[in-house]
Amino acid sequence: MINIIYRKKEIWILLTIYLTRHGLTEWNVNRRMQGWGNGELTEKGISDAKALGKRLKEVPIDKVYSSSSKRAFETAKYIIGDRELSLIQMDDLREINFGDWDGRIREEIEAEYPDEFKVFWETPHLFNRNSGETFEHVRKRAIRSLQHIIEENKEGTVLIVTHSIFLRVLMTYIKDIPLSDVFKSTPPGNTSLFKIEMTDGELKLIFENDMQHVE
């Protein structure tokens, strides 16, 4: 776990980090594997992003970080709305790279690569193909991106807009659970909200996968 301590005039600094998944896309609807490729936001995806923006309207967000993927960046812009906030794109916040599976329908992949597909979902820590990323690689860049954001924002509140598997992998780090358990938690809904607080250098998950703004 991160163990970074910041002090200022003998007062421990609190950093609040909100995280969310991008809005619903056409690829989500069509059950296409969506990694570094991109499906366009649907009307619901846009509506949900705006609803999350309304929910966070009174939250004093200092900065927004987004995956450089179009669906995440556009979601971030809809959440921000007319607020004057810095929006920073980061490649490290992108979804897992599915390689030659990217953009293909799940059922087609399962039929063509049954063994590898099974490993992906049931024993993700063992997943390794010649195309795309491993979960361990995603975990390393997830931790790297989080550490970078913490270093840049030693206090205040930030929002991170990213992706489903990225969020699940990052949560294994925050919760200190094995990568093999990455798919055992509830899948993050589109625009679902997570909240993390850092006090005295320790990260604490306050809530996760909250969808009350669209329910």
TrEMBL record:
GO cellular component, one term: cytoplasm
Classification via CDD domains: HP_PGM_like
Record SMART domains: PGAM
Pfam families named in the record: His_Phos_1 (PF00300)
List of catalytic residues: H22 (tele-phosphohistidine intermediate), E95 (proton donor/acceptor)
Binding site for substrate: R21, H22, G23, L24, T25, E26, W27, N28, R71
InterPro entries reported in the protein's UniProt record: His_Pase_superF_clade-1, His_PPase_superfam, PGM_Phosphatase
Single GO molecular function: phosphatase activity
Organism domain of life: Bacteria
Listed name of the protein: Histidine phosphatase family protein
